[in-house]
Amino acid sequence: MLIGFVVLYLVLSIGIGLYAATKVHSAADYITAGRSLPMVVVIAMVFATWFGAETVLGIPATFLDENLGGTISDPFGASLALILFGLFFARPLYRMKLVTLGDFFRQRYNRPVEVVISAAIALSYLGWVSAQVVALGLVFNVLSDGLITQQEGILIGAAVVLLYTLFGGMWSVALTTLVQMTVIVIGLLWIAKLVGDMPEVGGIAPVVAHAAAAGKFEFWPPLEWAAVVTFVAGLLTMGLGSIPQQDVFQRANAGKSERIAVWGTVIGGSLYFLFAAVPIYLTYSATLVDPAMTATVLADDAQLVLPTFVKAHLPFYAQIIFYGALLSVIMSTASGTLLAPSVTISENIIKEFMPHHRMSQKKLLWITRAVVVAFTGLVVFYSLWSLQTETSIHQMVENAYKVTLACAFVPLVAGLYWKRANNLGAGLSIVLGLVVWIAMEFVAPDAALPPQFAGLIASALGMGTGGLSRAWSAGGAA
């Protein structure tokens, strides 16, 4: 019966997505929802940008395995990225009336910069979308008591997300997200109350006190160079590397005004940080209610603690709400992060190689949809491979933003805020950032200075060298 309710929920999500397709009449509708969305929808979409499998399954698992400091990349880094984007990037980018973030790099620099950075942005999504699909496979496996393998669950989950994203695009993301975020917030808060009322839990304060006594709230690293650098890198890899991302940009850019673009992003990011505490609270409560079950599951996969606890200890109606909320968070994140790289590839790479006089909005729309299908295939392949390598959801998300930190962040910031940023600087920034990052990954992946941060420093030096060299040349000529 539980699976029946889940299937009904999936059908409803597909139905909303197909209804959203009736609002799509051009590629612009598909990509930005006509830049017509109100504040509440933008807040919901920004909140859903990060509130996915990582938040409900990955972060609590890391908290149990390590401590609060282990979650520095998410939610701390993730929410920092959204707030910074809203405060410093949303307004100038919204005024440029761009379709994709890749368009900025073409307008500010040149075509090669646009193609390389767009490819890097699209590549970074592979791990992020795959993390959501792997989580869907995990949920279907738990729900069916093993009748559906995680591999089969990955195929089912990818097919559902593809179906309702394919036709409606950003309109599908907007409408389904609004429904899904309502289910998430109400459902998880209500389940938190149910768990808090259990005699073994006794409310929030005892859980916090128990976690504090167990050392789970240790946050700051030891005052040692290697530990401090690793800690800062954990915060900024996602906190800065997530800023030059199409999904963050397109959610802000879909707002119907500049004010909505800015504050919808800031409020959504702030709410994400606050609400990420709820799954941590629920998962740690499971250790108090059933220590034996928790220990057994932790030895196998910490990501399974919360779903296993809900299925074993909560009433049936609460299980329906929980799994509905869990599917909501995963699918809302998966749909947006599936659309973002597909749009980037079609708009900023494929489109420019097509004869412009033949490129109608209708044709571009179908090309974008074809890329959505192709990228879904890549996601499924990577998801199945990650199971073989036992890569955790948290690790998949952390790894996703290394490439954009190393080669896209500096050109974006300099392009907006440094008048001397030029094509030479952007080219050097990209090349040096990528070369140093990739080389360090092979030569010294566990060095005190993480490879992606070495790449960031090299990227900044490249931009500075290119920008100042033109200034020196002009001064010498004078």
Structural summary, described in words:
The structure is a single chain. The protein is mainly α and 478 residues long. The chain has two domains: 2-395, Sodium/glucose cotransporter; 418-478, no CATH class. Helix content is 80%, strand content 0%.
Q: Give the CATH level 1 class of the largest domain.
A: Mainly Alpha
Major sheet size, sense and barrel closure:
none
Structural class estimated from helices and strands: mainly alpha
Number of domains: 2
- CATH topology-level name of the largest domain: Sodium/glucose cotransporter
Strand/helix succession = HHHHHHHHHHHHHHHHHHHHHH
Shape: globular
Oligomeric composition of the shown chains: single chain
What is the name of the CATH architecture of the largest domain? Up-down Bundle
The name of the CATH superfamily of the largest domain reads Sodium/glucose cotransporter
In which range does the helix fraction lie? Answer: over 70%
Cα gyration radius (Å): 22 Å
Low-confidence stretches: none
Cα end-to-end separation: 80 Å
Q: Would you count the extended β strands for me?
A: 0
Strand composition percent: under 5%
What is the arithmetic mean of pLDDT? Answer: 86
**Helical segment tally?**
22
Keywords, separated by commas or semicolons:
mainly alpha, 478 residues, Sodium/glucose cotransporter, 80% helix, 22 helices, 2 domains
List the helices and strands and how they pair.
Elements: H1 2-20, H2 27-32, H3 39-50, H4 53-65, H5 72-95, H6 101-108, H7 111-143, H8 150-196, H9 204-213, H10 225-241, H11 246-253, H12 258-275, H13 277-289, H14 291-300, H15 305-313, H16 316-350, H17 361-389, H18 393-400, H19 402-407, H20 409-417, H21 423-443, H22 451-477
Helix pairs in contact: 1-8, 1-16, 3-8, 3-11, 3-12, 3-16, 4-13, 5-10, 5-11, 5-12, 6-7, 7-8, 7-16, 7-17, 7-18, 7-21, 8-13, 8-16, 8-17, 9-13, 11-12, 13-14, 16-17, 20-22, 21-22
